[in-house]
Specification:
40% helix; alpha/beta; Rossmann fold; 303 residues; single chain
Amino acid sequence: MAKWTTADIPDQAGRVAVITGANTGLGYETAAALAARGAHVVLAVRNRDKGKDAATLISRRNPGAHVSLQELDLTSLDSIRAAAEQLRADHHRIDLLINNAGVMYTPKSTTQDGFELQFGTNHLGHFAFTGLLLDRLLPVPDSRVVTVSSIGHRIRADIHFDDLQWERRYNRVQAYGQAKLANLLFTYELQRLLAPHATTIATAAHPGGSNTELMRHLPGWAATAYPVVAPLFQDAAMGALPTLRAATDPQVLGGQYFGPDGFAQTRGYPVVVQSSRKSHDAEVQKRLWTVSEELTGVVYPVG
């Protein structure tokens, strides 16, 4: 079979794509590729100056590109609500919501609302943001919510309902695994809730091993090993391909998960891949959903 690349992205003219963390790395490459195919791309970013720089670069690469900015801090529910309110005012429809932003292996810290930083940013922030924007996607044919997970959802990963915020102990690798597993549990439960609506689907993707700024918080042992294994990783443009395929391929089905086709899914071209057994536990999906609504105060308009 032919390898799927950005050349396979259908025309996106007239479509609105909101991408979190779009000023750098995977998010930037995702935004640039969609803008090149005609989408109105909204860079939802925490740092407005970096967002402006990214928008300028995208416009240079693609003269005539339609790019706008939305300030968004996923560590603050107040910021998430304000961003969603502004986007709702600016756009009567959203075709693509790409939950890309994330943090990895951070030292123990919390969001502004007291959530463990990795779980709060990677999962709860996107859970709230998606819920507040979902009614802008529901009426739109072939609209999609794409959430970026990681190979890390398999590494020492579980949902620690007895200590979701890691208050009793903290392990940065396990906390990252919990957050990335949560991304997939969220996607599968969201797809179950969306299925009766037929217009909107939820999909997920992971970039394999990609050289991005996420690597800056590697723990000591991994930081030492990273220079050795880094040549095996791929660049951000290749790492963005699974997200782009999940977002744009007309053949994609709700609930599918895309990753690289190479060795151990660390590099290569995007194909449908399998996630862990834990990610498909329907009872855990439902329980996490209920807890996420309680923690964020965001109740979805489906269900």
